[in-house]
Amino acid sequence: LAAGFTDESTLPVQDVRELLDQVLGSSRTGRTALQYGTTVGDAQLRELSAEHVRRLDGVRSSGESTCSANRCLLTNGSQQLLYMTAEALCDPGDIVLVEDPTYFVWLGIVQSHRLCARAVRMDEQGLDLAHLEEVLQTLKRNGELRRLKLLYLVSYFQNPTSITTTFERKAGALRLLRSFERAAGHPLFLLEDTAYRELRFHGGEVPSALTAPGGQERVIYAGTYSKPFATGTRVGFGFLPEPLFTVLTRIKANHDFGSSNFLLQLLARALASGRYDRHVQELRERYAGKAAVMAKAMNRHFPPGVLRTNPDGGLYFWASLPRSVKSGIRSSLFRRSLEAGVMYVPGELCYADDPSRRKPNHQMRISFGAASPEQIRLGIARLGPVIKEAAMAEA
Ligand SMILES: Cc1ncc(COP(=O)(O)O)c(C=O)c1O
């Protein structure tokens, strides 16, 4: 129950086989796909990606947002875009703002670029704007604002908490960042990671920060076809304002001079044919079902002191144990869970090293992505007693 892998049984094997037949169906299309492409990636997929995000955002024409094909960079998973953004904007010692908690792989990028992270609290509406302002004020007071470069936000069904940040909060965050730019002496960007956006199974669509005032100039939109289609294809995309678009294109040229043309052509066909949309619909139903199975099992097996989120999408539950019950890598709870055959992601891994607060160590990310309903029932039935035992030992 730890991995952020997607549901095995829904991976679109048949669709991909038929699409590959089309790609390789004639010498002309086959040869195009098997030749090097361009650094920015297949023109049709860039156009389709722009249309796709505009449709999700409820925006009609490309004139209304940054979301146009000529600002679209196709990447090797959205992971590459995250990495290249840090590479482009940050120098060692620079500061990035992150949600508290945040996506732990981003924390790896922060570490590898020798950056400092400052954590901004969240509530059930997403990023806490009052705390964001407080953090920005503190940086200003300490003369550190010049080192601040961006706010990283996993805005939809966040990994790890499954919280979605409302549109109003995103617009508010952009406004706040803007108001500190003069003191920073440079633009402050919002890196919006939308990895789970399409895995929504309850509620309505929330527009991206691209459509908020100032979004065209300051939002870097990181999207992916991994989670909603097939993680193995590793196709992601970004929409970037200039001059960042040009800078990241140059960095990508140094990394790999373009993602796999073959896979980009495959994705383009999946989108253009409507197979992609059908697949996403199927996934939503599947995850809604598995989330319900997990919620029911947790209600049955977890002790009453455990609080958890109730996801409307994505792949995760986030459970908070009583504070005295440690869930970290070195905890007896983690060890006992492994002995019982269950793994979760210890919450402590999702917290940045922020000197202004102690890292919480009493939470867990529990995924319903890869496990089957039977495995979910069994896993939670095993995890519940281990948590109870740890809570009793602390009492
Ligand atoms: C929040 C978040 N962002 C980005 C990614 C990277 O996904 P990919 O590179 O497959 O697009 C993941 C993968 O789990 C994720 O959870």
Can you give keywords for this protein?
395 residues, alpha/beta, 44% helix, binds pyridoxal-5'-phosphate
Q: If you had to describe this structure to a student in words, what would you say it looks like?
A:
- The structure is a single chain.
- Helix content is 44%, strand content 14%.
- By secondary structure, the protein is an alpha/beta fold.
- The longest helix is centred in the C-terminal third of the chain and has 27 residues, at 275-301.
- The two termini are 27 Å apart.
- The structure holds pyridoxal-5'-phosphate.
- Pyridoxal-5'-phosphate binds at residues 4, 77-79, 103, 154, 159, 193, 195, 224, 226, 231, 234, 236.
- Pyridoxal-5'-phosphate (PLP) binds at residues 4, 77-79, 103, 154, 159, 193, 195, 224, 226, 231, 234, 236.
> What structural class do helix, strand and pairing data support?
alpha/beta
Work out the helicity level: 40-55%
User: What oligomerization state is this entry in?
Assistant: single chain
Counting DSSP E segments of at least 2 residues, the number of strands comes to 13
Mean pLDDT: 96
The dominant shape is globular
Spatial separation of the terminal alpha carbons: 27 Å
